[in-house]
């Protein structure tokens, strides 16, 4: 199998390309969102084995969706400076149907493990997270509408719900609010990056928001979306989240708003990347304080 998939490069290069193909950095973030959903949901603690299955099933399903995304988009990835060095467009890995079998097997194993070890509801959310990113976003929406990333952003929300459902399939208010936060976080996060890489999306013919409405209006929409996101991220404070969570949400959210406002005032690559990195900081801090808050209460 390996000889049919590898095209060129050393073992180290091949390993690096594999890791990039499965978007494992994004997968780890998605996995943490699932663990945050688990942490904020009251109920019996999972066993060590169940906890491991939850984490790995979300990570592996996310990895399968990331690989499918790159498999489908390898032609357009060749047109974008940001993506032309990926595994398939660079020629480091052969673009063959064998990858679809690997991707399908990974998804099937992750969903089956969650079904058998956790429960069917959690397994359903594991599947839906991968499905929305791989099929709804990548295949159905990305080249059709600027709303692609809005609807596709549900992939992160489903990871939160997978973690929550592992404890209690009857989802609680805190887990639903955290899922809503993930849904609202994705557009300003991704649109900031899209403004920074607008020319790439024009070249590839992808109707991301700044391509459709221009950088200036897109930047103002990012700012408004960020304000809405931060407002919603504070709501858990009214439904049982403690002061650690609220302080962390205010700190990370305030910084994201500050950077998004800079982008709205001066839409350029520098401020767009500043807003993008602020979104990562805000989400990381929010997930961390959500779990810490539960541990100390």
Give the terminus-to-terminus CA distance: 51 Å
Radius of gyration: 19 Å
User: How many beta-strand runs?
Assistant: 0
Query: Do you know the CATH architecture of the largest domain?
Result: Orthogonal Bundle
Strand content: under 5%
Q: Domain count, please report it.
A: 2
The CATH class of the largest domain, by name, is: Mainly Alpha
User: Percent of residues in helical segments?
Assistant: over 70%
Question: Total number of helical segments?
Answer: 16
Mean of residue pLDDT values: 93
CATH superfamily of the largest domain, called what?
A: UbiA prenyltransferase
User: What general outline do the C-alpha atoms trace?
Assistant: globular
List the helices and strands and how they pair.
Layout: H1 2-5, H2 11-21, H3 24-39, H4 48-72, H5 74-77, H6 87-90, H7 98-117, H8 120-141, H9 148-152, H10 154-167, H11 173-196, H12 198-204, H13 209-213, H14 215-233, H15 243-265, H16 269-296
Helix pairs in contact: 3-4, 3-10, 3-11, 3-16, 4-7, 4-8, 7-8, 8-10, 10-11, 11-14, 11-16, 14-15, 15-16
Please tell me about this protein's structure:
By secondary structure, the protein is an all-alpha fold. The chain has two domains: 1-169, Orthogonal Bundle (Tetracycline Repressor, domain 2); 172-297. The chain has helices at 2-5, 11-21, 24-39, 48-72, 74-77, 87-90, 98-117, 120-141, 148-152, 154-167, 173-196, 198-204, 209-213, 215-233, 243-265, 269-296. Helix 4 packs parallel to helix 8 (120-141) and helix 8 runs antiparallel to helix 10. The radius of gyration is 19 Å and the shape is globular.
